[in-house]
């Protein structure tokens, strides 16, 4: 459903991505892994529209999305979280999620200013949906808290919640477990599995935490120095010599 | 709208209603009118700066367009005043779009100076090509609508404060709903905003236009009150004065704009005693507010209030 | 025809030199702190008015007056930095802009209080007759302005590129944390940048006053035009500000001469807006570097 074809991206003298191709099938949990500097976040940024590839393309349901703006991509059903959290820090937990409902609403400046009945109805409905979402992810009790006051684990979950509010078809998670402890990571993993199985959301996951990746992914693609070096199921990847070498270095034989 | 807002509105409306009844002094009424006019511009600026996180040092430009356009349309073209005010607002909105589109990519000080440049260009234009040039022009028709002509200060005071209160209600409604959250999201993180589908460019243009329309309406009211306008009222100093109002009152809430506008408008009174020190005192107030009243008077008071209530219930 | 053109050219170059100095002042502070100091114009006014004060009112010798004026200007820069910039160093850009505006108003208020609204002047540095150059009348003071500005430019170039202190100051703008980690006293560099910037501005004021006179409120427009000069050349780049200042001065002079004198202020503004909108990195600036710095 999400197709990455021959994507290349160069920054100055550095080739961050070199003819990378892979597919993210419907209803899968696809992981993109690789050592630091492999190009994973660059790929995420290209897929989510932050910058275009130098060559190659990304298409979603057959329609090319690479090169279009992040907001257009979001409207088509692709949402993401960020490696370095991008929450609306000075807004409450509930408000963060309600901003996620933006593309599902239509109240404009004038209508809202006039407090029209249609606006009131939409506000009530979106508020209801947002609170239900918060309950699903376990943050309902903190809806009035400012986002910046939450502990890191809950902030990461909030960012996922905000992305979920857009009712995405595909969810891009960029290192969601970064900075989380073992228990939080386990809960995160369960949540991702739940999103995939119960809500039918396709997941593209960039992660460093190998336990998490191996436990929840249905397939894995491995990048190293901008090139794809392996692809397959978790068991296959774990045994793959190139992957082990990439992470651990050459064995002295 | 929360209960706090409602109470504040009720109080404001009561004061606005009673003050012109309690006094006949045209001077006090003029202070009330100017406070109201400045407050209208100020709340537009608060929305632009406090909620959306943009900056404008050129609001005097839209204020001036509002005044001159409305005056010219009603005096020279004979349009009914309300139509002239609307026409002026459309013109200001267009100017805001023209300014906003190329300015959108600018941040921080670049944006500040670009808006400053805009305000100055409007002033220079009015000075060179406006009717009467630097001397300005008069015989601007008084405000009239539905056959009622407003010539008395008392009635005009009610008019201005009614417009202000309606705009406060409009602003609070808007800020509490989808567009307001979008603006605050813009302020929080543009990256995340576009990632959830917000059209960042369009929102910035819209909020610029909104603040320009507020300033334009205020400028038009000003013109139809004083009946004689000259470019000097719309120079850089006014933009700086507005900045003082919102910084002093607090940019994060429209009430900050109201409080700041009233305080700064009333300021020249006690300052009259200082004669040549007035510019210095203006500067000191702005500096000290920025240094010590970090977020402004209104947020400081509301924070004190809420921590007091928390302690009470604990 | 040609003489008229040359006349406008020379007067444009002369006033343009002052804009160049203001622009350089902007760059000095920007390079050390990433702050745009909108009070920069006031330093020029301080230079001119204080020079009159020491020279004319206190009847002090010429060189002593210059020294005292520059010292005082440096002191003003120091006080500004210590009292208003340093306490707010963690605040966001919006607050910093407003603080510099606030300080410029305070300075203007003090100047108005002390000197009133009248224009001031003092005799040119050398008593000599205006002479003809290609048919245009050139005042000797204009040559002083150009010469002093040139000397400043050379000095600043040498300072920032050849001395350790200068290079340290430039390091602070790229990465203050890294700079302090290698032992550069960042806060002292920042203080120094304000002092230096104030002195540079004052130099401009001292040299231009015999030609253009000085009033308490000229600071605002000087700041705007100096900022135009700075961004024309690419904010942070010395030679760009100089070229920018000269171009603005010349275009202004031509506009006032050939078109309409009331529009001359608009010229600088329109140039600035055009640059901001289409090429914010300026004529020489590097767009990528600007983006790196977060602009």
Order of helices and strands of chain B: HHHHHEEHHHHHHHHH
The percentage of residues in β strands of chain C lies in under 5%
Mean pLDDT of chain C: 84
Distance between the termini of chain C: 45 Å
Number of domains of chain C: 1
The helicity of chain B comes to over 70%
For the biggest β-sheet of chain B, the strand order reads: 1-2
Number of strands of chain B: 2
Task: Briefly note the CATH topology name of chain C.
Answer: ABC transporter involved in vitamin B12 uptake, BtuC
User: What is the helix tally of chain B?
Assistant: 14
The residue ranges of chain B in which pLDDT falls below 50 over 5 or more consecutive positions are: none
User: In terms of structural class, how would the helical and strand content of chain C be classed?
Assistant: mainly alpha
Structural class of chain B: mainly alpha
Number of strand segments of chain C: 2
Please state the CA-atom Rg of chain C, rounded to the nearest Å. Answer: 19 Å
Number of helices of chain C: 12
**Backbone shape of chain B:** globular
Assign a percent range to the helix content of chain C: over 70%
For the report, how would you describe the main beta sheet of chain B? 2 strands, antiparallel
> How would you state the average pLDDT of chain B, rounded?
89
Task: Summarize, please.
Chain B is mainly alpha-helical and 314 residues long. Chain B has 14 helices and two strands, in the order αααααββααααααααα. In chain C, helix 2 (40-57) crosses helix 8.
Explain this structure to me?
The complex is a heterotrimer of chains A (253), B (314) and C (295). Chain A has 253 residues and is α/β, with parallel strands linked by helices. Chain A is built from 10 helices and 10 strands. In chain A, helix 5 packs across helix 6. Chain B has one domain. By secondary structure, chain C is an all-alpha fold. Chain C has one domain: ABC transporter involved in vitamin B12 uptake, BtuC (Orthogonal Bundle), CATH 1.10.3470. Chain C has a two-stranded antiparallel ribbon. At the A-B interface, helix 2, helix 3, helix 4, helix 5 and helix 6 of A face helix 6, helix 7, helix 8 and helix 9 of B.
